[in-house]
Design brief:
Layout: E1 7-11, H1 21-32, E2 40-44, H2 50-56, E3 63-66, H3 83-89, E4 93-96, H4 99-104, H5 109-121, E5 125-130, H6 134-138, H7 142-153, E6 163-167, H8 181-199, H9 201-206, E7 208-212, H10 220-224, E8 231-234, H11 241-248
Parallel strand pairs: 1-2, 1-8, 2-3, 3-4, 4-5, 5-6, 6-7, 7-8
Helix pairs in contact: 1-11, 5-7, 7-8
The protein binds 1,3-dihydroxyacetonephosphate (13P).
1,3-dihydroxyacetonephosphate binds near residues 168, 212 and 233.
């Protein structure tokens, strides 16, 4: 069976002013002039930059994603942003259930699932994040936690076309720490098995599973070579075009 098309997505988190758009422009120049790259590339900037980024990336193959959305399409929810608004501003995807939102905003699996469904409603790809804490890993609970988050956060309407899973061990985010390659492989294999059980063989095999957590140019090649790793969700190293390119270029035919 053919492998899913890899996706390398940069999550800028709460970083970036309009001046940062030059990094995206530099990346677009590098990517769009290079037909050896075999991965899709996405930037998920803060919501304020989605529309200006879409303008800067007009004609580029780089996709744009939001970092969160409200479950409703509109209404009295001061400060929140609907999936429809992200799409209207130029996004084609939305990250839901990032561990920083689960921790900072108390988002439960039910909320994350509803947000993923909101993404579908707006015809966005929902990138659903899951991952264990340091304590859960130390207790040997990683696979159970990942299973529970996946079963609770994945909507019934999920398909390989509308959903991407991102496995991000919480303790590896922004710390410079990564699991061993065997540990990453074990969790991704586990997620693949769960997806196959939920969605059937073809859909389960086709859904992309990204790894996230301290992915850098120096470790990307070995992480991306692991079976069932279909790309990366990159935080800090996506902010500079040169670093992000060092990760993207792992997926090069030449
Ligand atoms: P870092 O790459 O900075 O560790 O962040 C990972 C992440 O949380 C991406 O969503």
């Amino acid at each position: 069976m053919s492998q899913p098309l890899p996706l390398v997505a940069g999550n800028w988190k709460m970083n970036g002013l309009r001046a940062s758009l030059t990094e995206a422009e530099a990346l677009a120049r590098q990517l769009d002039g290079n037909d050896a790259i075999t991965a899709q590339v996405m930037i998920c900037p803060p919501a304020t930059l989605i529309a200006p980024l879409a303008a800067v990336l007009e004609g580029s193959s780089i996709l744009i994603g939001g970092q969160d959305c409200h479950v409703n399409a509109s209404g009295a929810h001061t400060g929140d942003i609907a999936a429809e608004m992200l799409a209207d501003a130029g996004a084609s995807a939305v990250i839901v259930g990032h561990s920083e939102r689960r921790a900072d905003h108390g988002e439960t699996n039910d909320v994350v699932r509803a947000k993923a469904e909101a993404g579908y409603r707006a015809e966005l790809i929902s990138i659903i994040c899951i991952g264990e804490t340091e304590r859960e890993r130390a207790q040997g609970d990683t696979l159970n936690v990942v299973s529970e988050q996946l079963s609770g956060s994945l909507p019934g309407a999920a398909t390989s076309g509308n959903t991407v899973i991102a496995y991000e061990p919480v303790w590896a985010i922004g710390t410079g720490l990564t699991p061993t390659l065997d540990d990453v492989g074990e969790v991704h294999q586990h997620i693949r098995a769960e997806l196959t059980r939920r969605l059937g063989g073809d859909e389960g095999a086709a859904m992309r599973i990204l790894y996230g957590g301290s992915v850098k140019p120096g470790n990307a090649a070995e992480l991306m070579a692991i079976k069932n790793v279909n790309g990366a969700l990159v935080g800090g190293a996506s902010l500079k075009a040169s670093d992000f390119w060092g990760i993207i270029s792992v997926y090069s035919e030449r």
